[in-house]
Amino acid sequence: MTPLDALLELLDRVGASRGAALVSEEELRRWPVEAVRALKSQKLLVKASPATTVVCPGCEQECTMPVDTVFAGTGKVASFVVCDKRDDINRVAVSAERLRQWRCGAEAVGAFVAQSLGLRPGSQRKAGAGLWELGLVMGKRRNQMVCLGENGALELVAGQNAVPLVEIVRFGADGYSVDSEAIRQLVDAATTGDSRYTPSNARRESRKLETRGLHEHWRKEYQALKKRRLGMSDVWYSEQIAKSKIAQGRSAETIRKHMKGQK
To answer: Are 14 and 150 in contact (CB under 8 A)?
Structure first.
């Protein structure tokens, strides 16, 4: 995973959740150090409340279970999972570190984009269902309000035109940024001088089809793994898929959410 891959993973999760995504401290330790540093310093990741569910560390089944937390005296708390799957296990202690998690929401992504474009801080506001106004952007020929859309996938919208946010984010020496030239071309017209920045329904539909195809590969591999290794946890299956080429750099958690198909 590269630093850019980390941001793309995060943006995909926020878009899919239609609001906010949570990332555990344990998962962040597997991300590039420079990526985590930039995501936190640029407020794309902020501390969230401790997780209320966790993958139980009590045995190899790795079940996802609710967490109970009680006061242990002297101001301390103790967290644990109550196992109801085995007779030889009762309470399984869970460390506070295992429950730490970070949050990225659409509002944080909007603030990041606005800052990258040099828009007035705090100018963004909710413009309707799944749409955030970020501010007025000056193109070469016209000015246009740019919005952040969160309709299943994050995209920047100007008038009738839109471009997926994952296509125009960058990582460099100063951290993450948005390609401002791409936004100015989006503002100016639907047909631009550089075809890489030409947002169209065809490109958006193509990306959706690619995503569906990726999920279908995961579903087939999940079924194949279940036949070969019956009785393992969904976490185990998703981690095996994440190690293969068909993962396309996606995390085991993202794969787990899509490998079983629509619920």
So the answer is: yes
